[in-house]
Write a structure and sequence with these properties.
There is one protein chain. With 368 residues, the protein is of the alpha/beta class. The chain folds into 2 domains: 11-89, Winged helix-like DNA-binding domain superfamily/Winged helix DNA-binding domain (Arc Repressor Mutant, subunit A), CATH 1.10.10.10; 122-360, D-Maltodextrin-Binding Protein, domain 2 (3-Layer(aba) Sandwich), CATH 3.40.190.290. It contains 13 helices and 14 strands. The strands form 3 sheets. Strands 5, 6, 7, 8, 9, 10, 11, 12, 13 and 14 form a 10-stranded mixed sheet that branches. Strands 1-2 form a two-stranded antiparallel ribbon. A two-stranded antiparallel sheet has the order 3-4. β3 and β4 (78-81) form a beta hairpin. α1 (25-38) packs across α2 and α1 (25-38) packs across α4 (83-117). The longest helix has 35 residues, at 83-117. 37% of the residues are buried.
């Protein structure tokens, strides 16, 4: 089974030297990242498979290009990154976080097209899902289990609409627990029908505010987003997280026009975290895992449930059997439980819509 992966590669060239060689920023950033962690250029060079001399050459070339130092060497304290170097590292993180869902989706599309050309048409589970860390964990788990799948990241509403229109087999979406459940659930009832669809519980996860370490601006509530000195970065319009935040702000009577940066949308939780980590914003809203991975502080606000919707008649079809078996396995449940901010206690539980949302249906009916 072939697998395609696509990764961004950043290069910078000086317009004043059109004949000069472009600087490989991807390799530079990898080196800087290890220096930031270890404080040692020699150890960092080994970690990225470079000689010490070659690593110093890359650093000197970069310093000449940017016109400033990247490394601050203090006796007895090792090597540290200058603000310029730190900004380069964060820029690379932002690029990866912003592009990864698009590139992953494109890679899946290319795999399908290549298999057709190679005369390898096989049953494939088509997943459309709101981006999240448990979904990414499922993608990796399906790869390891050699389960054929085609994953496209999109907003929750778009995913569920695609399921109803036959454009995918599995649709990932999330709904908050508590007072905002009904307000979010109604966005999906146009397409999900009790007699047609069932749900597979993926996880309960925590959503909240991402703030810089030690929370220097003292941001603790949604009301704090309206303070004049606070810069916010949002998720994209149409994402489940954006819809949820809109609901919570409206319930509190908070005018989004008073929130600086509310119209700035990123396509992933990780991209929001990277935006804040690089100093371009002070606060964002998303899942706890992203905040932890980017070294940010997290202020919990609300819990939500993430589900995969599937047509009941296709649950054990040839195309979906492998994916459903993976979703309902103990090994995958443990993987979800290991994610910060995720609760995998019910991972893999198959439910009717009436079981998952008893307030909107009649007597529960167990499928499995």
């Amino acid at each position: 089974m072939i697998r395609i992966s696509i990764h961004p590669h950043l290069q910078i060239r000086d317009d004043a030297s059109p004949g000069g060689e472009a600087l490989d920023v991807s390799r530079l950033v990898a080196l800087l990242g290890h220096i930031e962690e270890s404080g040692s250029i020699s150890h960092s060079a080994q970690a990225v498979s470079l000689s010490y001399r070659y690593a110093w050459g890359i650093l000197r070339d970069a310093e000449a290009l940017f016109g400033g130092p990247l490394i601050d060497k203090t006796r007895g304290r090792g090597s540290a990154l200058t603000p310029l170097a730190q900004q380069l590292v964060w820029a690379s993180k932002r690029i990866g976080a912003r592009l990864s869902p698009t590139l992953d989706s494109l890679a899946s599309e290319l795999e399908i097209e290549l298999k057709k050309l190679m005369d390898q048409p096989e049953a494939t589970a088509r997943l459309h899902a709101s981006h999240g860390f448990a979904v990414a964990a499922l993608r990796d788990f399906l790869d390891e289990q050699q389960v054929r799948h085609d994953l496209k990241y999109c907003g929750s509403v778009e995913a569920v609409a695609a399921l109803a229109e036959g454009a995918c087999d599995i649709a990932g979406f999330h709904v908050p627990v508590g007072e905002f459940e009904h307000g979010m659930w109604r966005h999906f009832t146009t397409w999900l029908k009790p007699d047609t669809h069932c749900l597979v519980h993926l996880a309960v996860r925590s959503q909240g505010l991402f703030v810089r370490p030690d929370n220097p601006l003292g941001i603790h509530t949604l009301e704090d987003l309206t303070r004049r000195e606070v810069r916010f970065v949002n998720r994209q319009v149409g994402s489940g997280t954006r819809l949820l935040l809109d609901l919570m702000l409206a319930a509190r009577g908070i005018d989004t026009a008073r929130i600086e940066g509310y119209s700035n949308g990123e396509f992933t939780h990780a991209a929001v975290a990277a935006y804040i980590g690089s100093g371009m914003a002070d606060v964002g809203f998303g899942v706890e895992t992203a905040a932890r991975r980017f070294g940010l502080a997290f202020v919990p606000v609300i819990k939500e449930r993430y589900f995969f919707a599937i047509e009941r008649a296709k649950l054990r079809s040839a195309a979906l059997a492998g994916a459903v078996d993976a979703l309902t396995s103990e090994a995958f449940r443990q993987r979800v439980n290991a994610l910060p901010g995720y609760d995998g206690t019910l991972t893999g539980t198959v439910l009717t819509l009436k079981e998952a949302f008893p307030d909107y249906g009649a007597t529960p009916q167990r499928l499995r």
